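S1.2 Input.
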Amino acid sequence: MKRTLFLLLAASVALNARAKVVLPSVFGDNMVLQQQQKVRIWGDSDQKEVTLSTSWSDTPVCVEVTGGRWTAEIETPAGSYAPQTLTVRDADSELTFGNILIGEVWVCSGQSNMYMPLRGYTGQPVEGAMRTALESPQYHNRIRMITLPKKEAETPQRDFEGHWDIPTPVTSQLMSAVAYYFAQTLTQTLDVPIGIISTSWGGSKIEAWMAPASLRGMGYDVDRINADPKIQQRAKCGLLYNGLIAPVAGYTARGFAWYQGESNRREAGHYARLMQEMVKYWRTQWGDAKAAMPFLYVQIAPHDYKNADATDGVAVMEAQSDALELIPNAAMIATTDIGEETCIHPRKKREVGERLAAEALIRAYGMRLACWSGVRFHNAEFSDGKAVVTFDNARYGLTPQDEDITGFELAGSDGVFHPAVGRIVKSKPVVEVTSEAVAAPIAVRYAFHNYTPTNLRNTLGLPAFPFRTDRE
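S1.3 Output.
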């Protein structure tokens, strides 16, 4: 038996050695190709020409090979659950990929909360993971995910070791929980297969996901930072872009989902600009000159970040809100209600995936969904010893009615904030806020500490974003 296995492996190695046409690992069996698009396919060959044939078209596509490399575009039909094939051949070799699905493709990236697998981390569970894993075979022809292994690189990489996975009770546990719930919600709503390119690294800083040229333009001393042995690889400029984004850049997709920011609390003051530059560069690499690919992202969740009363974490949340004004075709979801004071990895990942999916349905698929975004501060008026705060994304009112709304603070002319209580004005998206310690308030804050218990939501259950009126 061992000899037979050895001979089979040897034959496989010999076959690969003779193969002349090569594609990177992002193309393979079980992959999902973006529907109704001219999908980009690329690879290597030592021949002059490469031909691509598909099971859904009778017309092959022929392209020239230049300097050993080639790029082709093939048109895809409407999405369906029917398995398809793609064959790529040159003059003396051929590769065929099977069980391909046509549907919607998204790139999901970030740090540990995006990477967090369905099985959770040590001592840190994902809520509902067992049922999700047991039910995963229902999605064998609806969800596919390819996860890039953690790798940093000094130069942009062209390939990686990985393959497209089909959900099973075993494989689903290793998939990004946020990305899986995002895909699950989209396939249930759109009724087409969803492909996820999952590329994240826990503890990473945004600078690692950016182009060094962009950072230099912002005044970063890239060479000094990257040469510093005290700085972790996942925090150095461009290294994760090179290892985890460059190999898949250009794979035709609908958009991006991003969950990162906890590691950039010291850079909160310019985090919004960092996001802007990163998104701009990514879109350039995908050929998205018109910003047609939505960039969806998660506002980091409340957590003590070593000091629950401090504001370094919420400063990043504020910067993420600022980024909405800088990044075209972007949307941010709220997590004010799911943070955990002593665990930086909230267990409620389904809510994150579903909220990202709701924004995708609005931004990418044209669904007119009212109040599906988090509750957002509109304005505040101060009189008669109270603040009257009006909110957006609460057309049908706010909840909970007839209960104290927690998380508010008021300050008077001395600038000192004190705990305050909010009461919802019935049938209006308005909260009246008062504090016995502040007779004449001139400023109001909500959820403006690293961790603050809150309960304000709209009737769809979406929470209010943190805000302050005293920002200079």
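S1.4 Remarks. The mean pLDDT is 95.
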